Amino acid sequence: MIRFRYAEIDGDLLEKLASFERLLDLFHYLLLKASGDAEAALDLLRQLKNRGYIDGDLDLDEFALHLEKRDLVRKENGGRRRLTDRGVRAMRRSSFERIFRGLKRGGPAGGHVTPYGGGGAGEPLPERREFRFGDDIERIDFNSSIWNTVRRTGGTDTPLVENDLVVCDTEFSTSCATVLLLDISHSMILYGEDRFTPAKQVALALTELILSRYRKDTLDVVLFGDDATTVPVSDLPFADVGPHHTNTKAGLAAARRILERRKNRNKQIFMVTDGKPTVIRLPGEGIYRNAWGLDEKIVNRTLDEAVVCRRKGIVITTFMVAGDPYLERFVRRLTELNRGRAYFTSPDRVGDFIFVDFIRNRRRRRG
After folding, report:
1. Residue 153 is part of which domain span?
2. Would you say residue 124 has pLDDT above 80?
3. What is the pLDDT of residue 303?
4. Which of 172, 223, 291, 342 is the most buried (most CB within 10 A)?
């Protein structure tokens, strides 16, 4: 017999727990700003407290000790704290929750479903169909099957036959290979507007979504500035912008080469950027740069890569976190040639768009 012991609720303890979780949420956001540097994020917390933005009664030294007890951070030999593997996972979950917190109810439930019914292990559909050899016995609708027997024989004493059996159809689910292209050029933090922090938050949330829910999917991360670099998912929290130009062509080419090696039928690139392409590498000539206007030589070679991706069956979805009409024109042209998608949004909305599209973009090619 299960027994329960009731006691008075400790209001002070509950308030401390709530304060800790709020502070932890802020700490995770500051980690994004600090490129995963735990000590720098703690310093930012202290600065906010000194300026009166954080309750002066909160003990940040005690908070840091709690982080160590939870194994979210660990002290190095020099005394500086760094993120642990568990801390990196917690940072991804925090980004995931922060972005999905703002999603509205309604619309598709997600889950990588396709428009096709079939022998998947997904959610049951209201439709019924005849039993086929090889169907799982657990999917047989016995109420409907027995009713078929009654209609056929007029009673319930006759055993079921194969033609009486009907099964619940299910949604066919599929997998997808995705490459996230993240712009790390200097323009992502230019003119006092931080576009990189929300862009990286989206990348972390997308990573958490795939690792926790869509385990048969693949996700690769490519950072592009002067050139393109593939980074492990575990290194994503520590990515930062640099004094780079924007080599969009190199980023798309690197993503395409990764996806060409994947066996998934569905392949797509998510590109989060705020700027026009300003640099390419010309065979036999080296680096060619032009940061002024839309250089036709750079633009055309970048568009050529979008066409190659289309021919390989790779869809490019571009998330433009800037409002320059010239840049929008370039992105529209790239999207048209690739037959992909483009979203023009501000940094605080990019998370909503990228995830709505990711969950809905599930198609299974016939033939």
Report:
1. 113-173
2. no
3. 95
4. 223
